[in-house]
Amino acid sequence: MQCREFKEIADSYLSNELTIETNHGIIAHLEQCADCRQDLKARRELRGKLREAFIKAPENQLQSEFADRLSTQLHEYSLGKRGAPLVSPRRWQSSMTRKQRTWLALAACLLLAMGLGLVMVRKRLVTPKAPGEIAVSKPKPNDSPEVNPEIPISIVRTELAKSAVGDHRDCAIKFRLAEKPIDLEVAGQKYDPVYINLTKAVLSQQGAAPLDAQFVEAHSCVFEGRRFAHIVLKYHGQVVSFLVTDFEPTKGVQPESVRRSADPQVITCSQFDGYKVSCFETAHHAVFIVSDLPEGDNLALARALAPSVFAHITRTENLT
Amino acid sequence: MFGSASKSESLSDSAVRWAAFETEAMPHVSSLFRVALWLTRDRAEAEDLLQETLMEALSSFHRFAQGTNCRAWLVSILYHMQSKRRRTAARLHLVSDAEERIAETTAFEPSTPQNVTDEEVLGALERLPRTFQEVVILADIEEMSYKEIASALEVPVGTVMSRISRGRKLLRTELASYANTHGFGRSTQHRISEKESLREP
Fold first, then answer.
1. Domain co-membership, A50 together with A181
2. Nearest Cβ partner of B11 from A79, A95, A175?
3. In Å, how far is B2's CA from the nearest CA of chain A?
4. Does one domain contain both B15 and B56?
């Protein structure tokens, strides 16, 4: 090995990145060459000095007070609590560029305009324009879902029901979801405000599910790209999944497999993959009750849950 | 996790997850902060980035493969979070500048200066193009492997190897150049005797 060749790979030798054969070549060269031994020693010292200086530099030190607060906040976050944010709104604001602030202002104006437009459209729907014209009344927040035979509402897509069944099977029965479920309240803050306090809406005032069903767990999970609020219950010894997901009604079509139940409050989807599915909708969300129960039991549970859940979701939708 | 029989078991799962995270990830907070500070060049922004990184890491801790390098995994998340914050072409521009500069310097292999001070070595690092600073910091200071750096920066391993080699050489060149101008890089005794000779009438 020549000195020039050694200098090319000396750093890699120090990092132990070379093959055994090349290392042997270097060692043999170093035994004969004092200059290269000196150069290797200098490189080793320089690397040590660089590391030590960088790590010890006062400006590179994390303040212990910040580290302690960060640790506490992460601990609370892991338990599903939301501690006080370390990032102050002022700092967040100051860290934005002027361009970002301009875009944010424009986006806010656009949202405001859309909101005003929506209010006007709703007002037009509620107020009769002419004598004899029938106005479609806006549902009150506490209304339960209704099926009016005159109005084609409650369009439930087959795909959604299939996703709900898939989620029930892979998450509640076989525990094989690709993505780990997250805390429902955390998901509510992050993805959909309807998830917040949804568990309370499912459980009665006494903290128990209706019809003596047992509460097992509440979380948010994703099945094939679709996020659900997932509350797991046990009823008559069977695992029951209560699932809520948002949907875009304009894209929906009435599937053949969906039929209205005798109960005006609930629409049932007969079966997918052997599972019983009952479902109802709000303006922006579809709610599914999936289980292995007989259809009557599944439907009874759905009927029992529907009023408080519908009221909770509708109230949240109206607020957002 | 899912399938547990009660809410209290779910809470104990969270406690177990936190305990594992605290053991595996939290010891690397100082190291992560140094990289975050280098990336942002601003203490407040570095703290924000660190916080976001750790929250993201905690949320997806189930994806961390036990037995692998947790610090490298965290650095990858940190880079991902930073790229989400700033999607600009600035880095590409820097690469281009650096490559041009390197083309002029790689032919020269300087001798390695000795007896350098902390300030001198940090000053030389600071004068490197950011692309090369980055890999030198990750490889020689944070001691990440080529593969781990390639994963964090989302570049091929060959590119990392090339940048590290050039970055180290550039660092020596900077120090050698500084030594020629300011007189360090030789033995301390040599410098003292030189100063003494200058004092003589």
1. no
2. A79
3. 7
4. yes
CA dihedral of A65, A70, A76, A82, whole degrees rounded to 10: 110
This model's pTM is above 0.90 = no
Where does a domain end: B23, B54, B85? B85
Q: Check CB contact under 8 Å for B114 and A42.
A: yes
Shortest distance, CA B134 to any CA of chain A (angstroms): 13
| Alpha carbons B64 and A98: distance in angstroms, whole number | 38
**Percent helix, strand, coil in chain B (nearest 5)?**
75, 0, 25
Q: Which residues of B touch A175 (CB under 8 A)?
A: 1-3
Domain that holds residue A18: 3-58
Pairs of CB atoms within 8 A across A/B: 135
Q: Alpha-carbon distance A259 to B46, whole Å?
A: 56
A186 token code pair: 């955390």
Does residue A251 surpass a pLDDT of 60? no
How far does B179 lie from chain A, in Å, by closest CA? 14
Contact B29, B49 (CB under 8 A): no
Write out pLDDT tens, residues B62-98.
888 888 888 889 998 998 888 777 654 344 444 444 5
Nearest CA in chain A to B106: A8
> B142 and B95 in one domain?
yes
Does residue A87 lie in a domain region?
A: no
Residue B61 and residue B109 in one domain: no
Same domain, B98 and B140: yes
Whether B120 and B22 share a structural domain: no
List CB contacts (< 8 A) between B139 and chain A.
Answer: 15
Q: What is the pLDDT of residues A148-203, one digit of tens each?
A: 333 333 445 577 888 898 898 888 877 777 788 888 988 999 889 999 989 988 88
Domain boundaries, position B135? 91-199
